[in-house]
Design brief:
With about 100 residues, the chain is α+β, with helices and mostly antiparallel strands. It has a domain at about 1-60. Helices cover about 55% and strands about 25% of the residues. The protein contains 2 helices and 4 strands. It has a 4-stranded antiparallel β-sheet with strand order 2-1-3-4, with helices on one face. A hairpin with a 2-residue loop joins strand 3 (about 40-45) and strand 4 (about 50-55). The longest helix is centred in the last third of the chain and has 48 residues, at about 55-100. It is elongated.
Amino acid sequence: MQYFVVMIDYGRRGREAIVDPEITRREVISRISSGEYKNISFIHEIADSSVEDVTADIMIEAAVRDIGATEADLQASHFDHLHDLRKHERVKAHSATHSLKQS
């Protein structure tokens, strides 16, 4: 059996260990990237009868995913901006043509 223990530190309010055998490594990374898990003290991977501290590895993976999402958002914004510019150019061209017809 394999599962993860994610220790969350709430400061003066204490700590909480999140232990759910159904949560996979990918799910832990996803929850960190989304901001659902914050203020993590440590992440331990329990496999059979051994315990491994995987905090650094998982935090790095979560950061890489977060950076990837940010770059995707920037790219989408750039494409939206280009689309808006083209749309405004079409409106200007249509207005100019319409003005010439009325003259």
